[in-house]
Design brief:
Layout lengths: L12 E5 L1 H10 L4 E6 L7 H12 L4 E3 L1 H8 L6 E6 L11 E5 L4 H13 L4 E5 L8 H6 L8 E5 L2 H8 L3 E5 L5 E2 L3 H4 L4 E5 L15 E4 L11 H12 L7
Parallel strand pairs: 2-3, 5-6, 5-10, 6-7, 8-10, 8-11, 9-11
Antiparallel strand pairs: 1-4, 2-4
Amino acid sequence: MPKYGPYDKKDGHSYALGVFPSMELIQARPESVRCLLLDPDGCRNAGVQKLMEVCRARRIPVEEAPRAVERISGKENAWCVTVFSKYDCALDPSRCHVVLHNPSDVGNVGTILRSALGFGFLDVAIIAPGVDPFDPRVLRASMGAAFHLNLKKFASFDAYREQAGEREYYLFRLRNAQKLDGQGRTAAPPFSLVFGNEASGLPKELESFGRGVIIPHSRAIDSLNLAVAAGIGLFAFSPTRGEK
């Protein structure tokens, strides 16, 4: 077995930490999975046992490697780690997209990815220098939802637009925008929902591009958390609203 260590974005592999993200990975991207690493202390856990059964049925190597699990998971305290090869995705130009412009918080991005899948948005673009979508912390925060999405990082917003095709853009920002009030019910797909950085928002060069949308809230706060704002926007524009 290769000596796997802490995640490095330069490597050609990444990790799914824990039972649930690992199971989602194996279900969605089985061809990318290299092996399952276990901490023996967790082998009696029902979830770990089920994961081992699934791996063996798919002929995925399973190894007890407590030191490797500790090196990889660090403070995450995972009983198991699934190693997988990074893969490339292409966004579908016929579908609606979520665009995250330079997001910096791995937890926010993971939460947004889970919301995107829940509200029927299957294509997500991350604009550089935003977080690495293969960062294990992103994948764990998404609870494995990331593996079911077409997720791609672009060097710039212009690079994304070149591949996105003709569409309307709804930019969530704090100024020069209309209050969110029914736009999602009238928006004609395909369109893109664009959200900016947690601290700086969207850059000024995008302020006059597309349709500006603001989520109204009380003056007691300056702004909403990015993951919260994205969740509201995704629900408002969701093609799956009303479904269970």
